[in-house]
Amino acid sequence: MKRYFAYAYDIESGKILACDAIKKMIFRFRADLAVSKKRGARWKFDETAADQIIEFSEALIQFEEPFNGQYIHLESWECFILAQLYGWVIKKSGFRRFKKALFFMGRKQGKTLIASAIALYEILTKDGIEAYSLATKQEIANKTLRNLKAFISNSEDLVELLKVYTFSILNPVNFSCFKPLSRDALLDGLNPSVAIIDELAAQRDSSAYTALTSGMGTRSEALTVIISTAGYGQSNPLVEEYEYGKKILDGTIEDDAYLVAIYEYDTADRWDDLSMLRKSCPNLGISVPLSYYEEQLRQARVIPKLAGEYKVKYCNFWQAAVDAWIPDSLWTRCRQGVKKYHAEITAEALAQAPSVISIDLSSIWDWTAATRYFWVESLRKYRALHRFYIPGNLVESKVHQENPALRKWIEEGLVVATPGESIDHGYLYRDVDAWLGSGHVIAITYDPAKSKELEANLSMKATIVPFPQKNVYLSPAAKAWEKAIVDGSILDESPVMRWMLSCAINKSNPDSGSYFITKNPIAKARKRIDGVISSIMGFSVLQAQIMELSKPRPKMLDLSKISY
Question: What per-residue string of b and e applies to 181-218 under the rule 16 or more CB within 10 Å gives b?
Answer without folding.
Answer: bbbebebeebebbbbbbbbbbbbeebebbebbbebbee
